[in-house]
Amino acid sequence: MSGFLELAISGLMSGLVIGLAALALTLVFGVARFANAATGDFMTCGAYAALAGFTATGSIVLGGLVGLAAGALVGVLSYLLVFRVLEGRPSVSALLASIGVGFVIRAVLGLIYGHGQQVFQLPLVRPWRVYDLRIQPNDLKIGIAALATLAVVFLILHATPMGRRMRAVADDPMLARVSGIAPRKVMLGLWAMGGAVAALAGVLLGIKTVVSPEMGWEMLIPVFAAAVLGGIGHPVGAVVAGVLLGVLQEIATPYVGFTYKLALAFVVLLIVLLVRPKGLFGRVEGVR
Amino acid sequence: MDAYLIAIAIIGAIYVLLALGLNLQYGLTGIVNFGHVGFFCVGAYTTAILSTHSLSMLITFPLAALFAMLAAWPLGLASIRLREDYFAIVSLGFSEVVRLVVTSERWLTQGVQGIPGIPKMFGMLSGTTQALAVLGLLVLLNLLAVAAMVRIVRSPFGRMIEAIRDNEEAVKALGKDPAGFKIQVLVLGAGLAGIAGAIYAHYIGYISPDQFVPLMTFQVWMAIIMGGVGRISGALVGALLLMVFLEGSRFLRDLMPFISEVAMASVRLGVVGLALVLFTMYRPQGLMGDFTRK
Fold this sequence. Notes:
heterodimer; A: about 290 residues; two-stranded antiparallel sheet; about 0% strand; B: about 290 residues; mainly alpha
């Protein structure tokens, strides 16, 4: 029983990471209307930047901030250089370009850092024991960091003028424009936020596991599954679905084996798309 | 040098076969298939497993195509109900799951070790003659595929799938059901990829899961986008450019050996990515496309 609970807790933590990345995917999708396949590589970018920051300063918090900044920068740059040009084209063009952007990011990281795995050299900590449960303090900190990020994102979305504009554009771009909202600024803010959130997910994933150029790309299917399960374009849904998916993956591991974790995410994705394409929380998309 | 050129031509012709299939799916019908390598993989493993258990290639080749087509069937069912970009991610996931299965099911596929000693085609010949025979077979298959494509484009079937690509809703409004057509196109393209995989497996003689990564799918995408989507000449020109690039990067490494193989792999990845970005941005109609239209 305690083993089961430990798996569930571990799943909760990796689920929060998936949820964060799905949030980044869904934020951009809500406004730009395409699935940004480079989200995973934004994560990787964040992880490497954080690793560099951590090595330079010795502080994991500072490292995380460096990662965050790098993610925001990559998000904004890819919008300015690529996706802004593709606005108004079919979503397939943007999707294909986002695959390309992801490849370029991975190629650059691979050239700089090689393809080996790197780790955050954090001191080993003895796990806490609560009754029969072993809890890794690091896992707990990762969970808290993820929750704090989520809180900040939701505060920005719901309690700032910028956030209100973002939601307005996501809801109805035309109406937002005639109401005097400049879509460009909103897009910039959104890509920065999407990049930063994805990067943070990457940092947390890197701390929990290892950092490699492929780490984010390999998360694409679970992240996309979580975004779809949550109802694409729905921020709360993305996080809840991410957590659900993370827990499901972990507690299923003893039954399906370690390697089929990804296949599980794929099956969830397929079932949701076929049975309930609007996801758990989504509304039926209006005709535009 | 002759042997080298023939080897490049063989790999190039395999890519042309893949590109023709993808062009049928995306260029003519608008199905965004990001999992092409999955069908290639199914074809390669089918023939590898069966022929190393001493089944004749005359049987394993059709089976390779058949299994690839069978793998495409459920995906085709999904394609009817999904928006095109959702289907793209699903098909990408499908090809990754195929790779997971061949990595994990060691009893069948020998896992990461891969399957060595796949018999050569035209085993009675040797050396250059044998390679030429393989190339001849590929050219024959490509000609057949091109002939089929030309016929498809000019048939009612072709007009229907192009109508589906251009406006699926209008097709539905006219009382035609696009579903069957999309499934057929996906299955046909997968069959071509399966045959391409089978030839690849017998030509290389050794297959392992890491030969079937998504990068390969996107190399084919790069080929058809550079060449010109929806055009048969585009598939040919694109595959040719792809080969020039892949082989050119190898030459570059021979000339500048201080670039490590790992670094070169990153460069290849980056160039494929850059080509996808730049062509979708600035030349979506490809090199062979209509120059007056943008």
